[in-house]
Amino acid sequence: MGGVRVDAETEATCVKGLFAVGEVAGGMHGANRLGGNSLSDLIVFGRRAGLAAAQYVKSFKGAVTVDGGQVDGAASVARAPFENTGQENPYSIHADLQECMQSLVGIIRTEGELKKALEEIGVLKLRLGRVRVGGGREFNPGWHLALDLYSMLSVSEAVTLGALERKESRGGHTRDDYPFADDRFGKVNVVIRKKGDAFSVAQEPLSEMPVELKELLKERK
Fold this sequence. Notes:
Strand content: 5-15%
Radius of gyration: 21 Å
Number of domains: 2
Number of helices: 6
Number of strands: 4
CATH topology of the largest domain: Methane Monooxygenase Hydroxylase, Chain G, domain 1
CATH class of the largest domain: Mainly Alpha
Structural class: mainly alpha
Shape: globular
CATH architecture of the largest domain: Up-down Bundle
Order of helices and strands: HHHEHHEEEH
């Protein structure tokens, strides 16, 4: 099932120096995630990620530089909830996002409900631009939630777009309007990318399964 795309051997993401492991990472779970796999997942791939991260640091050449403009931009976004003149409450947006995803992008999905979810997520993103928090910066959970909502809304939109693209039912993904598995989707990953505020959706072919694994998965009669 879905997650951040990583290199299978090193757990490296497309962002240099960033490694992802465990349930955040996609690629090894097939069509479903089994809770009992989590610990072995972390042990095996956590080790790979740690070794690769250490090697990345050791082989890094030159000085580390920071783009001051990016830092200032991030600081501006972080301060915005204190400076906005709007009256949106982050807890209300969070509750509405939970309700949207639970009722429209839940266990059983349909095209109409998924498209409605995208519309609602769009409205929530506009509301987030008007969110305002009070108090100081220390121990301020309302502020923390306001900042977390940017990622929550991005993940929610990506999940919804992926579910809309996959017009079949497979593993933990069930479409009531496409109740059967489609062999064509068994050969691709649905990849969601974000650049700026825009998302793109693509179907990209899976690597061919090694012969020795095919033999292991054959039904024994």
